[in-house]
Design a protein that fits this description.
The complex is a heterodimer of chains A (87) and B (405). Chain A has helices at 3-16, 36-50, 56-61, 65-78. Chain A is an all-alpha fold and 87 residues long. Chain A is globular and about 35 Å long. Chain B has 2 domains: 4-244, Thiolase/Chalcone synthase (Peroxisomal Thiolase, Chain A, domain 1), CATH 3.40.47; 253-403, Peroxisomal Thiolase, Chain A, domain 1 (3-Layer(aba) Sandwich), CATH 3.40.47. Chain B has helices at 19-28, 62-65, 68-73, 76-92, 94-97, 114-127, 135-139, 143-152, 167-181, 198-207, 239-244, 270-283, 302-316, 329-332, 339-353, and strands at residues 4-12, 33-35, 53-55, 103-108, 158-161, 186-193, 230-238, 251-260, 291-295, 324-326, 372-373, 385-392, 396-403. The chains are: A mainly alpha (87), B alpha/beta (405).
């Protein structure tokens, strides 16, 4: 598992108060009991951690942890080099 | 139990700072929603918002209405409260007819003196400035209620209710119960809020429920709420007393229902809202068949509007889709603690004028709603019974039932 994925999983685990090893890329937000408010909360933490901005439309399409990781990776890649953090 | 009627009105709102102006905007569909100016507190050029509009009160200078001592000691929210209450009190002449200890002041304000709080906090945290000595009295949520009492010289039961978006409706409902039971002879009641600060708007922005354009309640393409500010105040007294002194009577408040979802802190539950509507109707000794208008909470968010529609269907069954519904938030926005009071005011005026306001700015209703949302122009109908709904974060629901008189 790459660094982006493990960091995303850690954020989700901390937010929901569950062990990280219970979360996989295939885990759905529904399975993890992540409701709409949790999703906004988790996205906020992810945006802060990776210095990205997740658009509202993209948020609506995230169903699994893998979707989130893919989205973060794409947004990181699209960022101008000066804004990049070490990740 | 006494019958309770509305004998005075007052308002400071995004669509008018007088009842005369408010009603013109209400029935003409004149919106108070507009782009907000750059916030000077914003660090840097980028404001960081996903939205650009709010429903602000226009052309209001506290110094034109309040002496300088009061204006300085109070936040904008309290300015609105004092002036709106003054309009209602002047019209009804309440204090000339009732003993001060027998008049209640029950108002709703959820956010308190937000502007004063942010201004002083920014200076303290960034410059280690001294905090202004009037900060506590400017920011306390009860400042509106207290200042109304002081100006009107009213010594009866005086409270501020803070229940987020339902504060104003809860306040009016409790005042109604107090006059109905005879605990007091009369009341000044309503709501006030002035939360359009940089920090407040950014906090809402993070929740991703504010429309990037403007609120379009029940619309197929609705994309969120629009934040607002303002105040609406009404006076209540018994029908017998109002008639005896030949007071102007606008409408009768006949029922109040309030419930909690016991569900989710932000996601509304239809059962809770349906329960509050049923309670209001039962409290009015009425039947659901009599309801001829619902002023909806109708914030324009995906969650509220579909859930409120489901609640209306639960409460009214097959007849639900025949009851005219509109959300006046399409004009005056969502002013949190003041909203319920501004919407009660709109409903009272609608009953007095036999004219139901339209759900402005919407052309295509969400097909999943199945409600008779009033589109285009106001509708000339005299409902036998009208409801005004407020469904707050945290699942706190409040519904007023009113009749024309």
């Amino acid at each position: 598992m790459n660094n982006v994925a493990s960091r995303c999983i850690d954020i989700i685990a901390k937010s929901k108060g569950i062990p990280p090893d219970t979360i996989t890329l295939a885990s759905t937000f529904e399975q993890l009991n992540i409701d709409s408010l949790d999703k906004i909360n988790i996205s906020f933490e992810v945006e802060e951690a990776f210095n990205i901005d997740i658009p509202d439309e993209a948020l609506g399409t995230i169903r699994t942890v893998g979707d989130m990781v893919d989205g973060v990776t794409k947004l990181q890649a699209a960022r101008p080099p000066a804004a990049a953090t070490t990740s | 139990m006494n019958r309770v009627v509305v004998t005075g009105l007052g308002c400071i709102t995004p669509i008018g700072n007088s009842i005369a102006d408010f009603r013109v905007s209400l029935f003409n569909g004149t919106t108070g929603i507009a782009p907000f100016p750059h916030y000077p507190e914003a660090p840097g050029d980028t404001q960081g918002f996903r939205f650009t509009q709010s429903a602000a009160v226009k052309n209001f200078d506290a110094r034109e209405h309040l002496d300088s001592g009061i204006a300085v000691a109070t936040d904008r929210t309290t300015h609105f409260a004092i002036v709106a209450a003054r309009q209602a009190a002047l019209e009804s002449q309440l204090t000339a007819h009732y003993a001060p200890e027998k008049i209640a002041i029950i108002v709703g304000c959820a956010c308190g003196g937000r502007q004063a709080e942010e201004t002083e906090t920014i200076k303290l945290y960034t410059q280690n400035s001294r905090v202004h000595p009037l900060t506590v009295i400017r920011t306390m949520a009860s400042a509106g209620a207290s200042n109304i009492s002081i100006e009107q010289k009213i010594t009866g039961p005086t409270l501020n209710i803070s229940t987020a978006c339902s504060s104003g409706t809860h306040a009016i409902g409790l005042a109604f119960q107090m006059v109905r039971s005879g605990m007091v002879d009369a009341a000044i009641t309503g709501g006030h809020e002035a939360p359009l600060t940089f920090g407040f708007l950014r906090a809402w922005d993070s929740m991703r429920v504010v429309s990037p354009t403007q609120c379009r309640p029940f619309s197929a393409d609705r994309d969120g709420m629009t934040l607002g500010e303002g105040a609406a105040m009404i006076t209540l007294e018994t029908l017998a007393s109002a008639q005896a002194r030949n007071a102007t009577i606008y409408a009768e408040i006949v029922g109040f229902g309030f419930s909690a979802d016991a569900g989710h802190i932000t996601q509304p539950h239809a059962e809770g809202a349906a329960s509050a509507m049923r309670q209001a109707i039962a409290d009015a000794n009425a039947s659901p068949e009599e309801v001829g208008y619902i002023n909806a909470h109708g914030t324009g968010t995906q969650a509220n509007d579909i859930t409120e529609a489901a609640a209306i269907h639960q409460a009214f069954g097959p007849r639900a889709s025949q009851i005219p519904v509109s959300s006046t938030k399409s004009l005056h926005g969502h002013s949190i603690g003041a909203s319920g009071a501004i919407e009660a005011l709109a409903t009272i005026i609608a009953l007095k004028e036999n004219l139901l306001p339209a759900n402005t700015g919407v052309t295509q209703i969400d097909p999943a709603i199945h409600l008779d949302v009033i589109l285009g122009s106001p509708r000339s109908i005299t409902p036998r019974l009208a409801l005004s709904n407020s469904l707050a974060f945290g699942g706190l629901n409040a519904v007023l039932a009113m009749r024309p008189i």
